[in-house]
Records
---
Amino acid sequence: MTGGDSAAAGTPSAVTRPFTEAIEAAEALIASAEFIETDADLAEGLDYLAGGISSILQLARAHDPRHPYFVTSTGPYSKMGLDNPDTIYYHATVDAAGTYVVRGVRGTTADLSFQVLRGDYTPTDVPGGDDAFDDRRIPIADDGSFEITFGPADGATGGDDYFVLGEGASMLAVREVYGDWGAQRGRVTIERTDTVGTAPVEPGSERIAKRYAIAGKMLLARVHTWFNFPKWFYLDEPVNTFTAPRTTPGGLSTQYSSVGHFDLPPGRSMVVTVPKSDAPYQGFQLGSMWYISLDYVNRQTSLNSAQAQVDPDGMIRMVISATDPGVANWIETTGRRRGILQFRWQRTDGPIGVDLGPVAEVVDDADVRSRLPFADVNAIDADGWAARIADRQRAFAQRMLG
């Protein structure tokens, strides 16, 4: 460390102060959330903040488009943006002027996709997607390996392995999407062609101080953004209903979604009926009012078409409730009265029409079975349910280490 670095950075407390002040401001925002009704709601918000702190510090340190690498964007312990329980998310920071080679091996997941983003999610905007596509657009060898390049327009080769980084491109996002949680994970790496083989400059204390300041701004932006996102796209809809399937704002070009929000007081359940689609991936989940997934490892708060029981008529019927209705497709609210509803269809070949969307009916708990035409097929006992949860826990553990 040089004397100049030390003087520029100031005392140790001054270095970290922007971040610690951002944590305090974020905590105040969370504590003031209008939807908090119970201590459990507040505790979830504070735990969400802890995951955000961990994630933001990692992201601030990985923010180098000259020496990029993929980091986990969101996950079970650092949730944001209604993370899909069936997806592993990665991203790397890029610069529109750079050229980047992405290599990997495709696993056996239901979908593998790439998206170039401009800017970032903010409290007032969704980042523009310069290009979003799944692996059907890239050459993949018989052994599953692939190599593609992202770079400026003037470097384009005209081949199917080159993708242009548009003006303002700042991030390359990669998603692996699972139907079967026991599917084989793939591998993906990134390097910048004009810096590979070199080392980044070692940071001085002034640069470290700047990272803490950036991290503080990122943390507050994250909290502000995801407070607003449900208001933009969910909470204006009539409660306990779903929108018609539509392309996902700021999302993938081959993804459709149907969304809503629920309010189920004690004694009331929602029965959701949806056709099993031909799309390789069709998934449903609940989210909290913090706009994050619920516990999807130890509780069945999500189901995709590979996991769900499909009735003989080709329909998937799910029961959303706080109390166990004794059916395999129970979606647990985990005691929440209010929350988010989300369907996704991915790797689609065409539009998902209204006829493939969900229909919801809210009924008394006692009337649930009368709304299930194949109730006997749907039934599951306590031992069967425990085995179902054990399968989720084991598959999740394998997926995260695979």
Note: The CA atoms of residues 19 and 212 lie 6 Å apart.
---
Amino acid sequence: MSKIKSFLQRKNIVISPKLYFIDCMSSLALGLFATLLISTIFSTAGKYLVQVSALSDIGEFLNMASSFAKTATGVVLGIAVAHSLKAPPLVLFSAGVVGLCGNDLATTFMLGDVEKAISAGPAGAFLVTILAVEIGKMVSKETKVDILVTPTVTICVGVLFAKIVCPLISLCMYWLGNFVNTATEAQPLIMGIIISVVVGIVLTLPISSAALCAMIGITGLAGGAATVGCCAQMVGFAVISFRENRWGGIVAQGIGTSMLQMGNIVKKPIIWLPATLAAAVVGPISTLVFKLQCTGVSAGMGTCGLVGPLGIFSDMGFGNTNAWIGVVVCCIVLPAVLSVIFNEILRKLGLVKTGDYKLDL
């Protein structure tokens, strides 16, 4: 046992849930942002710019860039995960192939009377890359022909594992996403609350809500509820912590991430309540009143770089008045107002006091 432990330590292999499900998933989210998400932003802008004669060349350029960014998704996801695992160079570069396989490998299923090819997507890239990289690290620099052995082992292990597990991942992600999206259409009140609260909480936790939304293929009303839930957390914390963090806190949390408050939440969990209650309110308003829609990665980004609202406009159209009103009300105004109200109630009860939200900015 000591020899195995010593070997794993020498190879920098750490069996850790935090490493795999927090650090790796965070890197996966960055990979998604640099490819799939930026591709969506480019294609949305390009779609409108090509219609303006003076800007049509810029629009065509953005559409081309969008196509390349989307095509590179699997490769970048593999490299992103390998980077978070501190893979040596040959393993890191080989992980790009593994990520591409895990992301794009499609399995054909009969769903009712329809034959459908489903890929495992980011979930597939995530799981197969972790295994391939850890095995690749074991053999890295162990032979005199490392330049052949390491990429061969890393890629073959990854592709073989993808062939075994990706069909199951594909089916699970499809049914999970289908359940969430269909259930929200059928029960927009209940599911609006659940999705908004759960995805918003995941956003603030050191887990990637963007990766989660991309993995299950969230879309439609469910994606809209996820978006406003994330916005409620970010805008909520930015506003209620203004006493302590001033304008720097508004920018850091409102445009950056509410994850910055995790240290304070661990010390005093009740400070999480105002933003979470705000999410529970705006979720069903999004699904029932404004019927906001968003897809995949964008749904899990909230107001980070304004990606969530841009995702809604991408799905519903920039000319959609309902989308504009819904974004202003559900993503900004209501989260801010409701969070302040709930927070002041907690202050009156003596459960929250000045300094509880202080950040080192």
Note: The beta strands are 106-111, 114-119.
---
Amino acid sequence: MRLRGYPIKNWYFMGIAVAMTIPAVLYRTMLHLPEPWMESIVFGVGIVGAAFLLAWAAEASQVEISAGLAIAVVALLTVLPEYAVDMTFAWKAGVDPALPAFLAGTGPEPSSLELPAANLTGGNRLLSGFGWPLVVLLFFWRRKEYVHLTKEIAPEVVVLGLAGLYSILIFARGEIALWDTGVLVILFFIYLWLISNAKHEHEGEMIGPPGVIAGLPKVKRRLLLSVLFIGAGAIVGIAAEPFAEGLVHTGEEFGIDRFILVQWLAPLASEAPEILVAAIFTLRGNPLFGMAALVSASVNQWTLLVASLPVAFSLGLGEAHSLPLNDRQQAEIFLTMTQIIFAVVLIAKLRIGWMGAGVLGLVFVTHLVFNSTEARYVYGIIFLVLTAGMLVIQPEHAAGLRDRVFDFRDAIKERAGIT
């Protein structure tokens, strides 16, 4: 990795991101917003600004930690806003006054119960259905080349695939149980353990604000990184609840289906910085880092984020309990699960072309138009058929999966010092 001097404009970019967070802090601590839609805008913009700061700080941290771990840190911290918003929805579902009657079978289902799964599934589908194809198609447009990954991405591929397959049980049971939390947390920490000394290469120069941060003297760099991590994380924490509340009340005020509003608007605010960072890397000729960061973010969300929801729900309820999923949420879980499985098979051979990425992106874009429960199952079945077709008609995909499993096994042996 190379570092060099950067023009003052990169400090301006950081200043803009900081400025985006200031109204959220002011209105959270001292002022009052009269309308829910204003809350959604002010706190949503604050979350976007904080997410950019987290992304830049995490990327710059590559000079402090291994490149493989840096990718995981980038992915984890840039989806922190998604965690905060989703856990807010789960906690609020737990404290809903109508919940005890529903759990006892004597009352209707509280509407708050559907919102955690809305944000969760929307964020995951946005990452793999829009973010991944964007990187591949941008690189093909710029270089007329396929995106080539390395076998070091095997932990991400295998763990995401296992999490996708495990979610079949969640879908079938119609709940996210606390033992699911245990399984998914174990998967996440196996992944984290494996990539903590991985050697993903960040080719070329570190660009933009991360390059400015990384180029500072060690003491100043570490001080600035600490301020960015703590400050931006705190802003995400204080903005998450009013942003979530604003979305719900905005939907009620304007007659918009709040499930759809929460499913797509909230993830757009929290995922946009990460997808933009990945796109910038791709346009600079380094799609490997951008793609690896997005895949790692998918791993984070479909393991640790899913695992956190029944915990937040139980804390709100005041007792240990599974997070129930109604018919609509089960359909959303089914579609997200099948999209993940398709995406994993697509990238397992470590070479992704415009056609495969185009199919993934096309199915994602068209499914936005059809929001019924039945349509979700239809699209999920389409993904399963496409996955089966890849494995049968193009044996290199099956061979790629087998090789990634072997790479995963070898990574475990190497990390554990087994010869």
Note: The first strand starts at residue 147 and ends at 148.
